[in-house]
Amino acid sequence: MAFDATFFALVGLVLFFVLIAYLKVPGMLASSLDERAGNIKEELAEAKRLREEAQHLLAEYQRKRKEAEADAANIIAAAEREAAALTAEAKVKTEEFVARRNALSEQKIKQAETDAISAVRSAAVDLAIAASEKLIAEKTTAATKAGLFNNAVGEVKARLN
């Protein structure tokens, strides 16, 4: 019987399978694959848990954002109401100020008119007295003057007693 290369290749293959079986390589491969599958399942479970946690956080942040937007809208509305109230108050105060200023101006104008009328009357009285003095001085004689003087002195004496 002649052994050729195919026979030795077959014997080598059989010895290889026996050695693999003796060293429990298929079990080691299976356990390694099982361990890897377990790791992958754990990673998938962790990824799923992280995804759910991320979704929960996203929902919470969206809720907080909506609350913050609502708060901002309330703050803006309050600020607008306050601005409107301040504007109305300023308008009322301005109108009151203008009314007071107008009344004060009218009062000053009336006072100026009264002062002007008094000044004109005073000037007219002074002018009339001066004109009367001049006329009386021109038209009266010495005898009339003496009589008027005596008359005035008599009235003064009568009033003093």
From TrEMBL:
One of its GO terms (cellular component) is plasma membrane. Belongs to the ATPase B chain family. InterPro entries: ATP_synth_b/b'su_bac/chlpt, ATP_synthase_B_chain. Keywords: ATP synthesis, Cell membrane, CF(0), Coiled coil, Hydrogen ion transport, Hydrolase, Ion transport, Membrane, Transmembrane, Transmembrane helix, Transport. PANTHER family: ATP SYNTHASE SUBUNIT B, ATP SYNTHASE SUBUNIT B', CHLOROPLASTIC. NCBIfam families: PRK09173.1. This is ATP synthase subunit b. F-type ATPases have 2 components, F(1) - the catalytic core - and F(0) - the membrane proton channel. F(1) has five subunits: alpha(3), beta(3), gamma(1), delta(1), epsilon(1). F(0) has three main subunits: a(1), b(2) and c(10-14). The alpha and beta chains form an alternating ring which encloses part of the gamma chain. F(1) is attached to F(0) by a central stalk formed by the gamma and epsilon chains, while a peripheral stalk is formed by the delta and b chains. It comes from the Bacteria. It is a single-pass membrane protein. Component of the F(0) channel, it forms part of the peripheral stalk, linking F(1) to F(0). The b'-subunit is a diverged and duplicated form of b found in plants and photosynthetic bacteria. F(1)F(0) ATP synthase produces ATP from ADP in the presence of a proton or sodium gradient. F-type ATPases consist of two structural domains, F(1) containing the extramembraneous catalytic core and F(0) containing the membrane proton channel, linked together by a central stalk and a peripheral stalk. During catalysis, ATP synthesis in the catalytic domain of F(1) is coupled via a rotary mechanism of the central stalk subunits to proton translocation. The chain crosses the membrane at residues 6-23. GO terms for molecular function: hydrolase activity; proton-transporting ATP synthase activity, rotational mechanism; proton-transporting ATPase activity, rotational mechanism. The keyword Hydrolase applies. Its main location: membrane. It comes from Agrobacterium bohemicum. Residues 30-96 form a coiled coil.
